[in-house]
Prior knowledge:
The protein has 403 residues and is α+β, with helices and mostly antiparallel strands. The protein has 17 helices and 7 strands.
Amino acid sequence: MKLTLTKIKTLPIGKKISDGQGLCLTKTAPNKGRWEHRYMINKRARVMALGTYPEIPLIKARHIHFEQRQLLVEGKDPLEQKHRREERQRRHATLRFSHVAEKCIAQHELNWTNKKHAHDWRSSLRRLAYPLLDQKPLADLTTQDILGVLVPLWSSKRDTAKKLQGRIKIVFGYAIVNEYFKGNNPALWRDHLERHFSRLPNHHKVKHLRSLPFSHMPKLYAPLHRHSWMVAKLLQFNMLTVVRPSEARLARVEEFDLEGKRWEVPWQRMKNRLPHSVPLSDQAVALIETLRRQHNYPFVFHGRDPDKPLSDNAALVFLKRSFENYETTVHGFRASFRTWAAEKVTDAFEVAELSLAHKIYNDTQAPYQRSSLFEKRRTLMQNWADFLSKNPITNLEKRSGLV
């Protein structure tokens, strides 16, 4: 029989009464009872508890029962689904932010071009995020918890806070996709965290990587040019090509076309994930030819193990120890080049930016400007190499059309 509120009040205690299609109520006291869903699946009789009455009223019990019957229609056992859901909830109750972060990093580091990214991610999260965010289950974290991590860093370490926010956001995105976390991403910046930080006073100044005034670059290049150590050759090559340090350090012999004076950097090593053709100056070609005569190992700039490249920090450490009076980083060579191009070369904005593999066209412009300006970049890079080596440049205007 179909149950009503009036009928429920008059039901005998201890007797199971059906509401139809397997939904049953058993009175356990004058004003209490328990709901059950009785069903058959794979020729097996199953009983699933739905909750107690009156905490679950009749209308809600019918709604829950309907949902369970929908699972049966899909060929799923409601009781097994319930057990899986409860087990998942138990796991999530003990799951911490650090557990998911480590899974996220392990998955992403396979596609990162620089292995240092994984170290930087783990280091920053372990020092700054895990101690606070692991104090409660991941599922219980809120925006206030994220602010608790970021706000103390904001005034003194703005860049660190921004990087950390981006990494935490990615971890939560990974957690949401893998159903470790439900709800909106609490670490989103746009129209979310930015609303909080926009109200804070801004005393922060962006600190750029150290670089030399371009007029000092030839003074640094000259001793490198005379030095025989492999790391010095790598620094020299970085100065000549102004590529990012990791792009030069991992250069392989087969990437170079010395007759065509070009170097093809594969997309896997590029920050923008696009292949990059680098025009080689006469000086850069001579450097690579010299190294190729010296060895036949796979990496042009090999380390102590000839089958491996120089280490991540080899160039920077050598620069600091051997040229301590020069306040610069290896990446800073790019800024020195860019300033030289801006001050000494006429109408070379696009050429200089493309030489640095920067994205300068928006989504509307890019489909129309399809040239890499390779020949113009070749001329510019030769002029830069001549400037570094202080070779006399004659008829420069006729040769480049850029100066």
